[in-house]
UniProtKB/TrEMBL annotation:
The gene is purA. It catalyses: IMP + L-aspartate + GTP = N(6)-(1,2-dicarboxyethyl)-AMP + GDP + phosphate + 2 H(+). NCBIfam families: PRK01117.1 (NF002223), purA (TIGR00184). This is Adenylosuccinate synthetase. The lineage of its organism: Bacteria, Candidatus Eiseniibacteriota. It comes from Eiseniibacteriota bacterium. Plays an important role in the de novo pathway of purine nucleotide biosynthesis. Catalyzes the first committed step in the biosynthesis of AMP from IMP. The keyword Nucleotide-binding applies.
Length: 432
């Protein structure tokens, strides 16, 4: 069955959007399975930039169906704003964007709650899109699904049920964010427009896979932000690793043929939490400026540092990666020396596996391998053999450290700035 998956191996922002867009050329269906409008997937096609938050990155390919799966949490105002922007760019989404009836809604109360929670101590540095509260309600069994929203009576009943719980726990939320009639007045306007897009997407996906339609599962965020396998509690509230693709799409594990991971040639992180290879001061700023490292969703400056080999091997293991795509190699041009962490010194101990505890990560001193850099600009290079030997050595070392083939190396934002890696003789395809 031709089903492939693309995941982030770091703290998000690895450049997955561009890679999914490229692979979509070859896919019949692209599926988002977790996260929500906290994601920001940037695509550059013919010099024009499109940033997607909810809509799968395959949407720019006119023949590709796109699915927002049951594992996603979505805000309807954001969704329709995104669809209007796509329409204004001439992208038709009608009859090819499908939304799961089981997906949960981000409600006004969720955003109000998060704004309240993220003030002061205990903050995670979230995107403030209501992601955490929406997933929390889903797990607490007081969430509201897209299916319920389509029926006004069911929606009002679900909101009333949620309100009872909300008032017990958080008595101070603004009335307009929890009163069912006021919420209906804000959100009901989207009902008729949403209806034709909603279906049992899990059923459709399995049927499509059986018909040999090529399906690409598009991860958002990254493995280190995964609620189970990331740097808890400084994580997002969903499973951004491979397991989340099954629960969040309804595609059973044995239908998945291939799992690819995306890593930057260095590391970035937005929000709070440990980051052992972070570069401070001028060094960090230099990398941020070279990579244009500002959040696609919030515009926040991203924290920057060297590639972390322990974290990458953790992601390879958790996701069972079949291949890696290294992005933003071009950003490292001009560095005399480039580094990769291959171990941490922690409390007098040498760690070679990525530890679970925040304490260990905060106290970790990276042990680096250093590589000579290159001065050439890479962004016009299109073949592996054109890359400077030092750049090839660096990528080859990533392959050795992870024991995973490097499928592609990306040297610029444009679709064509993507070089098949040393492990790849033929074009990467979705499915076998
Ligand atoms: P939340 O997902 O808004 O709850 O934020 C939780 C953490 O995940 C914060 O550190 C965010 O900055 C981070 N995060 C969420 N989505 C993304 C993303 O798409 N890229 C990078 N970081 C993200």
């Amino acid at each position: 069955m031709p089903v492939s998956m693309i995941l982030g191996t770091q703290w998000g922002d690895e450049g997955k959007g561009k890679i999914v867009d490229l692979l979509s050329d070859d896919a019949d269906v692209v599926v988002r399975f977790q996260g929500g409008p906290n994601a920001g997937h940037t695509l550059v096609v013919d010099g024009e930039t499109t940033v997607l938050h909810l809509v799968p990155s395959g949407i720019l390919h006119p023949k590709t169906d796109c699915v927002i799966g049951n594992g996603v949490v979505l805000n309807l105002d954001g969704l329709f704003q995104e669809l209007d922007e796509l329409k204004s760019k001439g992208v038709n989404t009608e009859g090819r964007l499908w939304i799961s009836d089981r997906a949960h809604l981000i409600l006004p109360g969720h955003r109000a709650l998060e704004a309240h929670e993220e003030q002061g101590a205990g903050a995670v540095g979230t995107t403030l899109r209501g992601i955490g509260p929406a997933y929390r309600d889903k797990m607490a069994r007081i969430g509201v699904t897209v299916g319920e929203f389509l029926n006004k009576e069911a929606f009002l009943t679900a909101l009333a049920r949620q309100r009872v719980w909300r008032e017990r726990l958080v008595p101070s939320l603004p009335e307009e964010s929890i009163d069912p009639d006021q919420v209906e007045a804000q959100m009901g306007v989207y009902r008729d427009r949403l209806k034709p897009m909603v279906r049992d997407t899990g059923l459709a996906l399995v049927q499509w896979a059986k018909q040999d339609r090529r399906i690409l599962l598009e991860g958002a965020q990254g493995t280190l932000l995964d609620v189970d396998h990331g740097t808890y509690p400084f994580v997002t509230s969903s499973n951004a690793s491979a397991g989340g693709a099954c629960t969040g799409s309804g595609i059973p594990p044995r239908m998945i043929d291939r799992v690819l991971g995306v890593t930057k040639a260095y590391t970035t992180r937005v929000g709070l939490g440990p980051f052992p290879t972070e570069l401070g001061g001028e060094e960090g700023e230099k990398l941020r400026a070279a990579g244009g490292e500002f959040g696609a969703t919030t515009g926040r400056p991203r924290r920057c540092g060297w590639l972390d080999g322990l974290a990458l091997r953790h992601a390879v293991r958790i996701n069972g990666l079949d291949g890696l795509i290294v992005t933003k190699l071009d950003v490292l041009s001009g560095y005399e020396t480039i580094k990769i962490a291959t171990a941490y010194q922690c409390d007098g101990e040498l760690l070679t596996e990525f530890p679970a505890g925040i304490g260990a990560l905060e106290g970790a001193e990276p042990v680096y391998e250093s590589f000579p850099g290159w001065s050439e600009s890479l962004d016009s290079m299109r073949h592996w053999d054109e890359l400077p030997q030092t750049a090839r050595n660096f990528v080859a070392r990533i392959k050795e450290i992870t024991d995973v083939p490097i499928h592609w190396v990306s040297v610029g934002q444009a679709r064509e700035a993507t070089i098949p890696g040393p492990s790849l003789e033929t074009k990467v395809r979705v499915g076998r």
